[in-house]
Amino acid sequence: MEDKHMLMIPGPTPVPEKVLLAMSKHPIGHRSSDFSEIIAEITENLKWLHQTQNDVLMLTASGTGAMEAGIINFLSPGESVLVGNNGKFGERWGKICRAFGLKVEEITAEWGKPLDSELFRKKLEADSQKKIKAVIITHSETSTGVINPLETINKYVKDHEKALIIVDAVTSLGAINVPIDDWGLDVVGSGSQKGYMIPPGLGFVCVSKKAWEAYETATLPRFYLDLGAYRKATHKNSSPFTPPVNLMYGLQVALQMMKAEGLEKMFIRHRRLTDAARAGIKALGLSLLADDKTTSTAVTAVMSTGVTAESIRATMKRQFDIVIAGGQDHLKGKIFRIGHLGFVSERDILTVIAALESTLITLGDKRVTPGVGVAAASKILGD
């Protein structure tokens, strides 16, 4: 049947009908007073979502573009950075830093395990000459479904006093509590196709006063991603370059929907959906890559045993038109990932668990008792 496609990956995520309808409106001039009013409302609501009074800047870019902007605006060639690497995206930030001539030291962990905050403490305390200029952390590692101990690592960065903390919050903003001002985070990047409930195309960077001070002396090359230009324009309810007008129509409505739900209820919903998904998966006899204490509420990574991950994905797509994500790099073919962030409901979790259960039976997994997965998920949702 056409038009029954169901997207259950960690991005892009499902888009509400109200947002889609908003995006279908005729575009207006991006230098008009009417559009300035839209930018003003969006900016105010982005600060609410980020729990900050700092600047929150909008870029026409993906989450990777937002993170690149968050790195190149505050550092100079040859400076030292400490990068947490326990997945595809932590690895990516190290590559970006090297591409711009920064000296990169990585603190690594096995994919599926969280970063060890004590290793950051020791490294930062040993830096008596204050050579480390930034610590770059992926909060929710999308490739593995692991949440890293950002709050604890940030405390050690604050004790260092000189280093900035630069955070990839691409799959945590909107799904996990990230109190930027309370924690004193310096640079936080995110992308529209995750918790924001709109299609890809917008990146967001939140910048602290301390980071802006670093901007004044930073000398890495920048032009289109020069955040100073975005700051100046945003303060005038404008943009330095042509923005995606219709995408911003959608963002305006999505943020209104998020405010109506409220931050606390939004985070509780994501936690509840995660717990239900994990309970259903465990009941089906499958193993989870991240343990219960370190799991992200944005995405769950599942290890396949007996039945291959790719055959599970292919069967769910063919039989149910449900798309789940595969593993990346050395985890390709070994895991599959179920996204449950943004515009996702209890019904969606029950649907994907039921489809997964049926898929396993179809593929000959003899361990599965019909109904156990849905029953386990339903028990969590019924509590």
Lay out the secondary structure.
Layout: E1 6-7, H1 17-23, H2 33-50, E2 55-59, H3 63-72, E3 80-85, H4 88-99, E4 103-108, H5 117-126, E5 132-138, E6 140-141, E7 146-147, H6 150-160, E8 164-168, H7 180-183, E9 187-191, E10 203-207, H8 209-215, H9 227-234, H10 245-261, H11 263-283, E11 287-288, E12 299-303, H12 309-320, E13 322-323, E14 325-326, E15 335-339, H13 346-362, H14 372-382
Parallel strand pairs: 1-13, 3-4, 3-5, 5-8, 8-9
Antiparallel strand pairs: 2-10, 6-7, 9-10, 11-12, 12-15, 14-15
Helix pairs in contact: 1-10, 2-10, 5-6, 11-13, 11-14, 12-13, 13-14
Describe the fold and architecture:
Helix content is 43%, strand content 16%. It is an alpha/beta fold and 383 residues long. The chain has a seven-stranded mixed sheet with strand order 2-10-9-8-5-3-4, sandwiched between helices. Strands 11-12-15-14 form a four-stranded antiparallel sheet. The protein has a two-stranded parallel sheet with strand order 1-13. The chain is globular, with a radius of gyration of 21 Å. The chain has helices at 17-23, 33-50, 63-72, 88-99, 117-126, 150-160, 180-183, 209-215, 227-234, 245-261, 263-283, 309-320, 346-362, 372-382, and strands spanning 6-7, 55-59, 80-85, 103-108, 132-138, 140-141, 146-147, 164-168, 187-191, 203-207, 287-288, 299-303, 322-323, 325-326, 335-339. The protein has 14 helices and 15 strands.
